[in-house]
Structures are given as C-alpha cells and as structure tokens.
Amino acid sequence: MIAMGLMEIAIFILVGKGIGVFNTLLLIILTSIIGITVAKKQGLQSVQNIRNSVSVGEPPGEAMIHTFLIFVGGILLVLPGFLTDLLGFLFVIPFTRKWFKPAIYLWLRKRMKNGQVFIIRR
C-alpha cells in the first residue's frame, strides 16, 4: 500500500511537470468521471446478467465474478491516481476483465478448500 502511494505521488509529479498542475488535476477528474460512467453501465449490465442466469436456473458464478471485478474497478477509478485508474479500467473493460478471472477462480477454490468460502444450494 505504501509503495503504491509513493508510485502514485511520483507519477503525479512527473505528469504535473510535463503538462502542468492544473491539467494534471483535470486529467484525474476526467478519468474518474469516465471511469465511473463506464463502471455504472457495465455494473448494471452485469447485475442484469446475474438476474437472467438465476431466472433460467443457471448458476450465476461467472456473472458474479464479472460484477465483483466491475465493483472493484469502480472503486479504483474513484480513487485519485493514474495507476489505480489504469487497474480500474482493466477491471471494468470486458475484454481485459477476462485476464483476471483465472486468478479469482483460483482464489475462490483455495478458500473453498480451506472451508473459508462455501456455497449454499437451495
């Protein structure tokens, strides 16, 4: 966390020197607004996909992972910083989101094996 904060500060300084402080602040605000808009649209669509899966009796596992990644991406996009914005956009954009799914599945499998996560079937 400390290293991430220091890297964000260093990038702020470099970008600020390159394009100016005011333009850097505008860029941070602009990326946050665009990110929030994209995350909201993708998030609503993902929640609808969960509803559709449940309504036809399919497990919503993949749709839930997409929703989780969009939610985390939205949080990262709200935080000021260029690295957090980049990671947030990667979580929100559909074709890059698939890069993170194997790691989430692995994490969930480990938690399920240890008994930390379990699935209730009705």
Automatic annotation (TrEMBL):
Domain of life: Bacteria
Keywords noted in UniProt: Membrane, Transmembrane, Transmembrane helix
InterPro entries: FxsA
Pfam families (alphabetical): FxsA
Chain ranges passing through the membrane: 12-39, 68-93
Designated name of the protein: FxsA family protein
Protein source organism: Ureibacillus galli
